[in-house]
Structure formats: structure tokens, C-alpha cells
Design brief:
The chain is mainly beta. Helix content is 4%, strand content 31%. The longest helix has 10 residues.
């Protein structure tokens, strides 16, 4: 059956809510080839703490889309949904998409959700005609994995018409951009059925209302695209872009790139900040790339700074960039071929001297700068992102580090790259206030010298999880002191 939300409009002080219990999450099963939740011309809704299961079993698909914002009237250019929050949802095993948005939407937030095992797309946002945009969209701290096509796509944004202009009575709004932050993406061989990137966005129309809207893409992780014939890019981007503190690895297909920035469906890259990203390709084809950059439009600010583009094979392509004369390119580090102006090549440096653990296996990969890494203090403070992938402030030394991490102590204080929701807690921040200070020291002291099973033992203080809070944990805590 379908949960239908049609012509149900709240207001800023009166939201509708569908919420499962915070523990023992309700598990809703598809019973037919229908959209499980269907939204039409509605606003001010929250949906939280639910599992939506499309019930694929052995290739016998049951549910169509998990959540779909759908056409309602004979004038689809005026159909809408706005002010929706989706949080702590697990949506999986649907025949088409886990989430699809085929009408104009704004003020949409999707946070702390897990999307997996869609035969088509994890999240299909916008219509193929390019006239049903989603705006003021926050997509934050989600996991998207094992999808047949894209993990997520935000379709081309053509000149806005109908409700998308923000001028219809009662539906007025300003123009806004997109925040894509702290998400984890993965496609694998078992579920891929088309050649698609992990994440695609064509951000902002070329002219008219919203042409200066900005996509901010920061703190995300691409663990892999599939390694078979269906591989494609990690990020495929066009429009107005701020791309910073992302980590992308294991994009290995011939001719494809971890980050591909260029024209797509007549949307061209204009404003660009490509700053403090770490891109690592250990194996793969020699003509796969860490970065492909082309079709930049003149007359816009364009900055490429403090990025680490690292290939395992130094004879392989790291960068393929067609730059404009006034594009600012500075303090990037390249291992591999293709370096341009503003890029320093380090082909003689072993991977083990660059990263703490230069592998591509989730749960083991650690692209934190090794002691003495050429990434340390090699960046530009002028163009550095204010904080790093883990929330550590820049710079910690004389200059910002190159790549997504700012080295602070010998141990990576942030989340271990893995298949799961990104943990935003810094190691040692035991009270969760975003700082490692005297309060955390007092909490640690309460557990000092204890072992598992003793009353004051705390797993949170046992950083290496060996069953005791000892000198090894103290050294780890000390590494994070003052953050």
C-alpha cells in the first residue's frame, strides 16, 4: 500500500510528523509494486526513525520507489513540495529508486539516512526535462551504497519556469543552493547495472532566476565505484561549485575520473573553488584520472588549491586539466603525470611516506598525512578551507596542509574511513562538545587504569578497543589535546 501525502500543508509553527520510536525502529514492508510514500503538493512535514523495505528477494522485486515526490495536477510545472525533513531513515531494496523527486522542491533536508540496494538510483532528484529543480537542499551525513545506477543525481537545472521561479502567490521564495556534506558513497560490482558516477550535480541554470546558486560539496567520501565494465566517475560536477575536504578513492576505469568537472547537458562550470581534496587511486588503468577539468567559463572566480592528486603508479595520469589564463592554481601536490602550473610532482616519494595507510580497503584505508609527509605545511593559507575533513582547524603548523586532512599529532583524530555513516566526533572529545579540553581529561581520568568489566571502565576512553584504558590510550588522547 502507498502512504499518500496529498495537499497537506502545514506552516512554520505547525508541522506534520511521521516518527518511529527512537529504538526498535518500525520496519515497513512493501506489499506491491507501488511507491511506499508518495508526496504531492504538500509542505512542512517530518519523517523520522523508520525502515522502508522494498523487499527484493532473489531478483523478485516488490516495491517501486521508497519515497517519491510526484506530479499531482495537469500543470506539473506548478507542482511542488517544500519544507520536508527526512532523518534517520533506512530505505533499501526498491525496484526503482530509494528516493525520487520529480517536482520542484525547496527547503528539503535529508540527514543521517542510509540508502542501499536500489536497482536504479539511490536518490533521483529533479526531472529528466531539467525543469523540476530541487533548491535549498541539505543532504548531510548519509550513507548511499550498492545502487544499480547513480548513488545520487541532481539533474540539470535549466532556466526556471512555473513554481520554480518562486513568484506564485503563497509559494514565493528566494533562490538558494545546495549543501552536500559529510556523506559516504559506494557502488560495487554486485549491484551495478549501468555505467554511472557515484554523485552527479548540474548546479544552477546558465541564466535567469537562480543562475548564481551555489553547490557546496564538502567532507564527503567516495569509497569506490565498481571495478567492472560499469565503472564511472566519483563526482561528476558542473555549474557553480565549492568542492572542499572530500576524499575519493578507487576510481579505476579507463578514461574516468575521481572528480570530473565539465559541461553536462549544456550546464557549464562557472564559479569554482576546488580546495583541500584528497584523491587517491592505487591501481586501475593508466588513463583513469584523479581530476579531469574542462569547459571552464571565463569571467568567474576559479581556484584550484591545496589538493592532493595521488596515483599508485607514477606513470599513470593524475590530472587532465584545461585551464584558463586567469584560473588560480596553487599549492597542489601530484603523484603521477599531468601536473600543470601550480602543481608540484612528487613521483619519487613512496606512498607510505605520504599517507598513514595508503590502501583502498574500507576500514583500513587511512589517508591522514604520515610523519614527514610532503603534504604537511605545503598548502596556501590564503585559499585553505577553515577546518579539515574531521573538523580540525587550519593551519596547525606554519601553513595549511595539502589534502583533506590537517595533521594534528601522530594519530588521525577523526573517523576511520569505512562503509557507514561518517562519525563527526573527534577522538578524545568525550563530552561531545567539539573540543578536547580539561572536561574530557577529567572523564578520561575516571577510567584510567581500568579494564573491561570494572565499574569505571569506559569503552569511549579505550580508543584502541583492547579492553583496557592504559598508556596507549593516553598517548592517543594527548594527540588530540587542544582541538
Amino acid at each position: 500500500k502507498t502512504i499518500r501525502i496529498t495537499n497537506k500543508n502545514g506552516n512554520p509553527s505547525a508541522w506534520f510528523t511521521i516518527r518511529g520510536a527512537p529504538t526498535g525502529t518500525p520496519h515497513i514492508l512493501a506489499t506491491g509494486m507501488n511507491n511506499m510514500v508518495e508526496i504531492k503538493n504538500s509542505s512542512y512535514w517530518r519523517m523520522e526513525n523508520l525502515e522502508l523495505d522494498g523487499r527484493n528477494s532473489g531478483g523478485a522485486w516488490t516495491g517501486s520507489d521508497g519515497i517519491k515526490a510526484a506530479v499531482s495536477t495537469g500543470t506539473p510545472d506548478n507542482d511542488y513540495y517544500h519544507h520536508f525533513v527526512f532523518e534517520n531513515l533506512y530505505i533499501h531494496h526498491f525496484y526503482n529508486n530509494c528516493f525520487s523527486s520529480h517536482v520542484t522542491g525547496w527547503d528539503i533536508t535529508i540527514r543521517n539516512c542510509h540508502f542501499s540496494d536500489a536497482q536504479e538510483v539511490g536518490l533521483y532528484m529533479g526531472n529528466s526535462d531539467g525543469y523540476k529543480p530541487i533548491m535549498n537542499f541539505i543532504f548531510e551525513r548519509n550513507l548511499v551504497e550498492r545502487t544499480g545506477n547513480y548513488n545520487m543525481e541532481l539533474k540539470a537545472q535549466y532556466t526556471r519556469i512555473g513554481v520554480a521561479t518562486g513568484t506564485l502567490p503563497g509559494l514565493e521564495f528566494d533562490t538558494w543552493g545546495w549543501l552536500i556534506k559529510d556523506n559516504v558513497w559506494m557502488r560495487d560490482n554486485a549491484t551495478a547495472d549501468a555505467s554511472r558516477p557515484n554523485f552527479l550535480i548540474d548546479a544552477a541554470p546558465m541564466s535567469g532566476v537562480g543562475n548564481d546558486d551555489m553547490a557546496t560539496i564538502e567532507g564527503n567520501v567516495v569509497l569506490a565505484n565498481c571495478t567492472n565494465s560499469l565503472i564511472e566517475a566519483g563526482f561528476q560536477l558542473s555549474g557553480n561549485l565549492i568542492v572542499r575536504n572530500n576524499i575519493i578513492m578507487q576510481i579505476e576505469g579507463s578514461g574516468y575520473s575521481s572528480i570530473r568537472i565539465g559541461q553536462h547537458q549544456t550546464i557549464y562550470p562557472r564559479y569554482l573553488e576546488l580546495v583541500n581534496n584528497t584523491v587517491f587511486t592505487l591501481g586501475g588503468s593508466t588513463d583513469s584520472r584523479c581530476l579531469s577539468l574542462f569547459d571552464l567559463q571565463s569571467g568567474y572566480t576559479q581556484i584550484i588549491a591545496n589538493n592532493a592528486f595521488i596515483r599508485g603508479n607514477t606513470a599513470a595520469t593524475a590530472v587532465n586539466a584545461n585551464l584558463l589564463a586567469d584560473t588560480i592554481v596553487t599549492n597542489n601536490i601530484v603523484r603521477g603525470s599531468g601536473a600543470t602550473r601550480g602543481m608540484t610532482t612528487i613521483n619519487s616519494t613512496p606512498l607510505s611516506q605520504i599517507f598513514t595507510n595508503p590502501v583502498e580497503t574500507p576500514g583500513l584505508a587511512n589517508l591522514y598525512p604520515a610523519a614527514g609527509s610532503p603534504l604537511i605545511d605545503a598548502g596556501s593559507n590564503t585559499y585553505a578551507a577553515a577546518v579539515d575533513f574531521s573538523g580540525v582547524g587550519r593551519p596547525q603548523g606554519l601553513a595549511a596542509d595539502v589534502g583533506a586532512y590537517e595533521r594534528y599529532g601522530s594519530n588521525n583524530p577523526g573517523w576511520q574511513l569505512d562503509i557507514g555513516l561518517k562519525d563527526l566526533t573527534i577522538t578524545g572529545d568525550l563530552d561531545g562538545d567539539g573540543h578536547v579540553d580539561v572536561i574530557d581529561l577529567l572523564i578520561f581520568a575516571d577510567s584510567w587504569g581500568t579494564v573491561s568489566g570494572e565499574p569505571t571502565y569506559s569503552l569511549a576512553c579505550d580508543f584502541n578497543r583492547d579492553g583496557s584504558v592504559d598508556v596507549v590510550d593516553l598517548l592517543t588522547f594527548a594527540d588530540s589535546w587542544g582541538l
